[in-house]
Amino acid sequence: MIQNRNISIFIISCFLCLFLSKNEAMGQFDMGMENYSIQVLNDTVAVKPGQFAFNSITINNTSDQDLVLGLGFSLPVGWGFVTNPDPKVVVKRGEFLSIPFRIAPSRAALGDVNYPITIIFQNPMTGKEIKQNFFVRINNNTVWNASLLSSNLLIEPTDSLSKFELRVKNNGNKRELFEISLRSDLRLSLPSTGTQFILWPGKDTTVTVFVASRSKLANTNTVLFFVKAQKETVLLTGNVYFTSDTFQGKTSRFGSMPIDVEYFGVNMFKRNSSYNYFDISGNYDYGKNRSLNFRLRTNSVNLGDIFSTQFYSLRYSSDRFEVGVGSQNRFLNYQINGYGANVVFKNKKQSEFELYGVKGYQKDDQVLGLRIDNNISESLNLSTNAMLIDDKKKDVLAFFSLHKLEKKSTVNDQISVSGGYSAGKHIDTLNYGYMGGYRIEKRYNLVRLQSSYQYYSPLYYGLLRGVIHGSHELRFGTKKATFSLFSQTNSRQPVQLNSENVSFSSLNYKTFDSGLRFGFANQVNNISFEFSYLEQYQQNEDLSKMKGYRSTVYLTSNKAKFFQTLRFSYTQASIKELADSNMNNSYSAYYQMKYKNIGVNANYAFGPNYYFDYLSYYKSNVLPNSQNVSVFYELNNKSKTFYNRLNLTVSNRSNFEHPSMYVRNELYFEMPKIKSRITLFSSFDIKDVSNTMSFNVSVKKTLDVPMIFKQKYYSASLFLFKDLNNNDLFDNGEEPLSNVNIKINDITFKSNSKGMIFLKNAEEKQYIIDYKVIQNLKGWMVKDGTVDTLNLDRNVSLGVPFKQSRMVAGRVKFENENTYNNKIEAANGILIIAINKKGEIFKSSTNSKGEFYFNLNKDFYNIQMPTNIFGEEYHVEKSIFSVDLTNENYSEIEFKVVKQRRKINIRKQ
């Protein structure tokens, strides 16, 4: 056995030297004085739309005792968990624990965006919270549609400009490149060879196609629109008839709620331990940050023992108020798992006041709680948590509270003071307890101090009864090199109750660790060395304290797609009763690596590294020895239709006869056309397949269920008129403006004969009214500005006065260089642009005679015509004219387009 140990030491030493010599350093996540480390499996998780995001957290407990941690998550709005993680985490001493979880992104999440997920660990003994982030990126999903706002267009004889509005909307979650091409006997302003544009997710655009009514090659009035993206082409047909003065919004008064229905089958091949259940959830968005969501998980259908999976909740939330009923699951010095209700109030400072009541599922207990999170100022916070617990099973009625005042100047400059009290009645005995503590983090130039202390009296009610924790560190140096002195003590006092009828057992223990640490880091790697004196003890009749020294080296490396962390420790310790057992030297190592889609987790321990190892050897006479190696591989196929994760874990402990070799595989299939997905998970021990085989299935389907709630839709009317006396009122003798076209949120309107424009059953939101597009109103323009904002939160009627304007008139003239060719090209439908000093753009178009005009304000303008619409055989002599309308009311310009003489190349023989 000694020979095997020496070989293991030699292999680990070579392994350590290899990584120290080949890797450069990086800064690792600063855990402060916490004797555990956390590592997220994937820094970024890419998932398909509608797919859950799989990730896991590995917690490595480097302390000398078991750790009980609080686990929480901060998710983006509308996101949730497939299965709620347990808020209480227990990690054995010297071991690591991997916690897998699945997150369901919101249906409104965009593709190609990194959404941050924050994982929050709280050590209730120190009061320290540690946060770690990773990102979830929704893969691109190509979903788009194209439509004509009006497929029929009527062009009146007096119109100088008419147009189609082609709306293209990107309903996917990626940026899409679109190409538009046209086919028609009409003369169109959009080149038939195609035009391109890019749309962001959730965005839409309107392509304006100008139509010249008196310029066509045949009698047909049909326009074909070809919209192409991602090898898919949509054909739309428009007929030229008229432009409407009314926009008809929603045809239905009711909305719909997306509901996800998912079936789970667990351990399907095991008759006595298999169970099945359904998970149903939905979210209804009212707008203005108001939503109603629910979740219902049915109880399991089990062939053997009853396994409870029941979970249900209904929650309404807004900016200032939240209320929820149903299942509750949280951890705060007490494990809450039951059903009840909670109410949360918020103010402008984002302070929160919460009341909740819970009836336990498994324990026969009832809990009434209060939580106050008061942000007194930007740097000062006062929080209170209180619980009243009625435990019928233990016949205990107890109350405890925790108060914390925290002042935070910066991340590295903060101080907090905590205190609390409790009262518990068991049978006829009333016991009182208290707790108190502090935490200080202070940095001054190159010196940093961290010190925390928490004391819970033996009669303080809850999971931390009798716990005393102290953690202190004084650090010198910079980010590249540090030197630290540290000390940490954990202990639990025995509980002594006054009543002879009360029986309560608690584990009395004490650990002490004190020493020094060196650290070196750069942008890639971090390496640190630690040396400490330690003592460990647990109340025991046979063994005394474990005393000795421990040396530890840490290494983390992170560059590009490669990450690794290594911890190696050597312990020299002894216990008086086992001094002759030749067990003074012990070793342990932990390694984690991830490269692209391949990763490894491994633990190795030889000899008694902890007090409990000596105790195990004393009872079984087996030398402590354990190895644990886990290798995984992830795969996504090119079409993104399935996701595969394969994991192999080999574990071997000295107190087991045979090692275990578990194979786990997860497959994810997606069927986006029917809004469904299937997940298959299998697990088994290669050496004992029949007894360890596990097979799980989940099938998810999304339904759009109509709601009985009426949506809020409103109507608006605009009255356009000539305001001759500039009093903003429609007086006798003034005229309405008919056949005037404007844009409202990129939708084109034309006023009727009474000067009216209507929106009917429109959504409640802001509408931008753009008057710059007016083309057929000579000598008049809107009185105040060129853009209005219409807040449609009720039915609205607006009068829009117009004043007399300054004008720019002009024409486009075609000429031929060939004197023998007298054919004149048609100049109808050519786009002309005017730009003022502010950068505002005004558009006009030529009529059948090549004429155009602008109604403009007092300003300087550049009038220009695109030169790329005529082809190589045409040449524009001057494409930009500058016009000064500050001193004159009217200006005329002329664009000359020359058809060039054809060049003939003659080769000499």
Automatic annotation (TrEMBL):
Species lineage? Bacteria, Pseudomonadati, Bacteroidota, Cytophagia, Cytophagales
Q: Where is the signal peptide?
A: 1-27
Q: Does the keyword Signal apply?
A: yes
This chain belongs to the protein called Alpha-galactosidase NEW3 domain-containing protein
Organism field: Lacihabitans lacunae
What keywords were assigned to this record? Signal
